[in-house]
Amino acid sequence: MTLQARKPVSEGADHWLAVRPRLVLASGFMLFLELALIRWTGSNIVHLSYFTNFVLLGSFLGIGLGFLRVGRSKSRPYYSPVVLFGLVIVVLTFPVTVDRDTEGVLYWTSLHTAGPPAWLILPVVFCAAAVVLMGPAELVGRCFPELPRLEAYRYDLIGSLAGIAAFTALSFLSAPPVYWGIIAAAAYGVLLAPGRSAPRSAGRLVPYLGLVTVPSLAVVALLLAESLTAGALWSPYYKVTYSQGRVLDVPVTDIAVNGIPHQQAVPAAARLQWERQYGLPYERAVAAPKDVLIVGAGSGTDVAIALSRGASRVDAVEIDPKLRELGGSTHPDRPYADPRVTTHITDGRAFLERTSARYDLILFALPDSLTLVSGASSLRLESYLFTEEAMRAARDRLKPGGAFAMYNYYRESWLVDRLASTVQAAFGHRPCVDVVSTAGQQAVITAGATPAAQRCGPAWAGATAATPPPAGDDRPFLYLKDRMIPPIYLITLGLILAVSLLAVRVVAGPYRRMRPYADLFLLGVAFLLLETKSVTGFALLFGTTWVVNAIVFAGVLVAVLAAVEVTRRFRTPPLPVMYGVLLAGLLLAWLVPNAWLLSLPLPLRAVAAVTVAFLPIFAANVVFAKRFADTADGTTAFGANLLGAMVGGCLEYLALVIGYQGLLIVAAVVYLGAFALLPRSTAPAA
Asked: What does the DSSP assignment read for 601-655?
């Protein structure tokens, strides 16, 4: 394998910062900015809670365009901070929130909102994200011609890991968005600073001050104002806002997340008096609940009710640390201060799989996250909690004579029946189903470990032919009634692809520039599908927490970096052989069932999961590294690969129909297509 020699002259040579640190900084900033945009826009525009990969797709488009723009313009990408400032103005001026009278489960953004409609605000965010990310990507791309192919790719990956680490650290610290703005302003200031020829051309300072310094500082000021908003907390998942007041002379704390009314901290006595559903699980369970597990403990009202009903031990599971913290400080009953309560900040399904404790009552207390897992187009934080496999896990954690219950405002009667039939399939008998109110389908579903452990009111009629089958771990889409991709997604994705085709032609010129790299485009498509399968798989095995998500993304980058280092330092097998290893890895991932992995002890499960998930990722990136090293135009080749990743992000939605395991088949077909398009001259390369 022959690496391309370094070019002596580059349009980035005028920069005051050496190429390697500049490349690491630019790539780290690029990934950090992408994560910050996903997180921040989703906290202010409720539609993005259900289209989290919408900003991701815009980012991929912008990054690809940034690479393709290299060589077509020598001016610095001053447009990026200016457009970022405009996006922040638009989002803060026209946020999209849910009206106060709309609570409960939300489906595919079919909700009553205040603010611009989805058809208007989503295209604005998509296009703005693309233009904003195009700037840092162009700066990264300008570094590539100054280094050998794989060395440049290596430093790009190192920078990306640094960007993930920085954003993860801020998430751990619950840092408000002003800190994201400060980092962005500093990165813009360094990367867009006048070059070494600036002293001889003072006029170059004018665009820098007007187009970089002013908009960057304005963004910081706007985010500072938002961060200082009274009653606003920033968790790793949400922008949490709350207000305290009194209802019928009862102290109440109203809590909203990302502009959506989410829960209330209310004294147990008042909640039991106001809403019957909270007391029904204790009426339907025969055994007196002494040991209780509450999943979705939130601000603590359900915990307070369990204590008032005589529980001697309560395990309170809550995924969001800030909601738990808020409950500890504002709930009138102070349930989290009770020595009988133990708090677990983790994912509910992960807790069920790990714990060896047994309970008299397991309660799923309104666990609706109202947001998707970052990096997965259709997976909500609680998706794996409502599958048939999860209900079996709950059944296995019950004491003899114990009971399981869940309640919520389910909105649709078919959803109540679907959940009831899921419980029936897991427990082997019909549960109690109490529809407390048909307005919003407020319902309680209770099942004893045996039929004798439950006492029902009116009998549940049972599932009908129109009731969707139970959701499973491979297709955990509880709120999707039919096995289909909703039309709103199809229309949106079609428009995204149309806009992308036009943008590539306008920014990058004729498509024939990328024609020699069609196989690299398909490698990008398939790799994004592999990454999605890894994110969702690890979410099932270890929890849908932000920590697991960050570790998986970092792990993917480490696997890619390892593949690059192996390719740089050692003689690797020819590309046809590596494609064979890749397909074998995909076959192994297809054959290993999630149920078997979940049955393993946690340390062994981690080793097995990493092996199964990262073998095809490693092989795929050896293929990419070998092919990329021999390309004639590195920036165009890399841009084509990134645009392929954007298309792969669109194909993620196929999981709604074929399941996440089915994405492995789609990836295999796409990889075979990439192999078929491999230039014959490179096929035998070592």
From this structure: -HHHHHHHHHHHHHHHHHHHHHHHHHHHHT-S-HHHHHHHHHHHHHHHHHHGGGH
- pLDDT tens sequence across 433-460: 999 988 778 899 999 999 999 999 888 9
Model confidence pLDDT, tens digit, residues 151-201: 999 999 999 999 999 999 999 999 999 999 999 999 999 999 876 655 545
CB-based contact 258:42 (threshold 8 Å): yes
The HSE-up count of residue 137 (CA atoms within 13 Å, CB side) is 26
**Per-residue DSSP letters for 527-554?**
HHHHHHHHHHHHHHHH-S-HHHHHHHHH
> Does residue 596 surpass a pLDDT of 80?
yes
Coil, strand or helix at 670: helix
| Tokens (6 digits) for 90 | 């638009």
Dihedral sign for Cα 669, 674, 678, 682, please: negative
Q: Contact, 303 vs 316, CB < 8 A?
A: yes
CA atoms within 13 A on the CB side of 171: 22
In sign, the C-alpha dihedral spanning 163, 169, 172, 174 is negative
* Number of Cβ within a 10 Å radius of residue 498: 10
Q: Which among 258, 231, 303, 219 is positioned nearest to 113, based on CA atoms?
A: 258
The answer to whether the CB of 235 falls within 8 A of the CB of 173 is no
Q: Tell me phi and psi for residue 412, to 5 degrees.
A: -125, 140
Pair type for strands 442-448 and 432-437: antiparallel
Partnered with residue 240 across adjacent β-strands are: 233, 257
Torsion region of 368: left, alpha or beta (phi above 0 gives left; psi -120 to 50 gives alpha): beta
C-alpha to C-alpha distance for 185 and 342, rounded to whole angstroms:
42
Q: Which two tokens stand for residue 566?
A: 């192996």
Sign, CA torsion 670/673/679/681: positive
pLDDT of residue 486: 83
Task: For 377-394, write each residue's pLDDT tens digit.
Answer: 577 888 999 999 999 999
| CB atoms closer than 10 angstroms to residue 74 | 9
| pLDDT single digits (tens) 5-15 | 334 344 455 56
Contact (Cβ atoms closer than 8 angstroms) between residue 602 and residue 105: no
Ranges of beta strands (E only) in 199-238 are: 232-234
Radius of gyration of the chain (CA): 26
Q: Quick one: which H or E segment has residue 187?
A: helix 177-191
CA angle 204, 208, 209 (to 5 degrees): 115
CA pair distance 356, 554, nearest whole angstrom? 30
234 beta partners: 239
- Give the C-alpha separation, 27 to 556, whole Å: 16
Residue for token pair 């890749």: 582
β-pair partners for 113: 98
Sign of CA dihedral 274, 278, 284, 290: negative
Write out the DSSP string of 337-354.
GSTTEEEEES-HHHHHHH
Strands (DSSP E) found in 219-340: 232-234, 239-247, 250-257, 260-265, 291-295, 313-318
Please work out, in degrees rounded to the nearest 5, the angle formed at the alpha carbon of residue 584 by the alpha carbons of 520 and 575.
40
Q: Checking DSSP bridges between strand 398-409 and strand 232-234, what pairing results, if any?
A: unpaired
